[in-house]
Design brief:
It comes from Pseudoalteromonas aurantia. This protein is α+β, with helices and mostly antiparallel strands. The protein contains six helices and ten strands, in the order H-H-H-H-H-H-E-E-E-E-E-E-E-E-E-E.
Length: 270
């Protein structure tokens, strides 16, 4: 109880919420979750020190109480444990051990650690802004066709027996096996395999762009990107093929906005 009251007095619950918001806003920054983890650790160390000081608790007794909480949380790990962060996934055994040692033999580093972490976060956010600006910004992508020689065999919404009379969800570019396929705009590769989506797509690449746009490239003969890759403008991502459910070599190209398929040609001026 004393531990939680200390968290409340320092408004740590607001800090945790702000961290969650930061993690959502800067989800593409590979360092943001690690920084959040370090901040939580520093916050807990500070809370331990302040709790012992303010409530004049014997450090050993306080450490034993937290150890009891840890044992109980391991038994009831699916229940909410509050700000003490004694869930099985929050800290490693060594980190728990170090925290208990710091309670019994306190170091004057907790407050400094929090300040350092805040500085690192500020630098990290600025770094994120500059490294991601070319790819994820507030302006819509500047689209280019995924093939150089444009020859469309099936338009968006077309009805065909091969699709069980369902409207076509994209457009088909015809060509020969091995024709280079390009990303239509800068973005991050989400999928590059033949198993994540329905087998009818064959080898497929799915790319996340800015403003909630995604593009899908399927029936590829091969691809030379992998999930997690960041793509600049108009890179070769694979080659045209006939994998999946097809009648011949072509590229099935889809464009989605906020999860909804749209006509890709509506985004091109010609």
């Amino acid at each position: 109880m004393c531990h939680e009251l200390t968290h409340i007095s320092y408004k740590d619950h607001i800090s945790v919420i702000m961290w969650r918001i930061l993690c959502c806003l800067f989800w593409f920054n590979p360092f943001i979750h690690e920084m959040e983890k370090e901040f939580i650790h520093a916050m807990e160390h500070r809370c331990d020190r302040k709790t012992v000081q303010h409530f004049k608790l014997p450090p050993l007794q306080y450490a034993q109480s937290l150890l009891t909480c840890l044992k109980r949380s391991m038994v009831h790990q699916h229940q909410y444990q509050g700000f003490a962060h004694f869930s099985s996934s929050a800290l490693s055994v060594d980190e728990y051990k170090q925290r208990l040692i710091d309670i019994v033999k306190p170091k004057r580093m907790s407050q400094v650690s929090v300040t350092v972490i805040l500085c690192v976060v500020s630098i990290g956010v600025l770094f994120t802004k500059y490294i991601t600006k070319p790819i994820f910004n507030v302006t819509p992508p500047a689209w280019q066709y995924p093939v150089k020689n444009i020859s469309i065999s099936s338009h968006f919404g077309h009805i065909s027996k091969i699709r069980n009379n369902r409207p076509h969800g994209g457009i088909d570019f015809i060509g020969t096996t091995g024709t280079h396929i390009y990303n239509a705009a800068p973005g991050k590769v989400l999928i590059a395999d033949a198993t994540s989506l329905a087998s009818k797509y064959g080898n497929v690449v799915l790319i996340q762009h800015s403003n909630g746009y995604q593009t899908l490239y399927s029936h590829l003969d091969d691809f030379n990107v992998e999930a997690g890759d960041w793509l600049k403008h108009y890179q070769v991502i694979g080659s045209m093929g006939s994998t999946g459910k097809v009648t011949g070599a072509h590229l099935h190209f889809e464009m989605l906005q906020n999860g909804q398929r749209i006509d890709p040609l509506s985004k091109y001026s010609n």
